[in-house]
From TrEMBL:
Alphabetized InterPro entries for the sequence: DUF2878
Taxonomic superkingdom: Bacteria
The protein's name in its UniProt record: DUF2878 domain-containing protein
Segments traversing the membrane: 14-38, 50-70, 76-93, 105-124, 136-156
Keyword vocabulary terms for this entry: Membrane, Transmembrane, Transmembrane helix
Length: 166
């Protein structure tokens, strides 16, 4: 289990770094990594349903962030590498990030609020994203928005797991 979690985490990080370093040129490599993440998954049915239900929600979040001026990408409304990055994140939820599912939803919200905006700040440092607010305001506003949506995704994931296990 530990090796699977570490492998999943490393694969997700590979997609993250490829996306920020190569942007559109990362798509082939990131796509292959995502296929590998799915192939290694021990809960393919749950991961499939999670991708189907949560990826549109995640992309709606990004669209709202762009439309409201919180984020700006080089490609409108957002680049394809961001879709791949979200897919990789969702495929890590039941493996390397399973600890989030074990938290109460309000605790997961706080963890996401504290850490998720850092990924976008890093994207801004790599000059693949522009933040529409000063960093501390962005952290609060986008952190709350992102954490809310991700908490809903965690809830959806719990419901999917219950549905599969009944």
């Amino acid at each position: 289990m530990i090796l699977r979690s570490v492998t999943n985490f490393v694969l997700f990080q590979a997609v993250w770094f490829l996306s920020l370093l190569l942007e559109a040129d990362s798509l082939l490599f990131s796509g292959l990594i995502i296929v590998l993440m799915f192939w290694l998954s021990k809960q393919k049915k749950q991961d499939t349903l999670l991708l189907i239900k949560a990826l549109p929600l995640a992309l709606l979040l990004e669209f709202i962030a762009v439309k409201s001026g919180l984020l700006e990408f080089k490609v409108y409304p957002f680049p394809l590498w961001l879709v791949f990055l979200w897919a990789a994140l969702l495929l890590s939820l039941n493996t390397s990030m399973v600890f989030l599912s074990k938290l109460k939803l309000w605790q997961a919200f706080l963890v996401c609020m504290a850490f998720a905006p850092a990924s976008y700040w890093a994207g801004a440092r790599f000059e693949v994203i522009s933040l529409g607010l000063p960093l501390w305001q962005f952290w609060l506003v986008y952190g709350a928005l992102w954490s809310t949506v991700f908490t809903v995704i965690l809830f959806i994931n719990q419901k999917i797991k219950l549905f599969i296990n009944r």
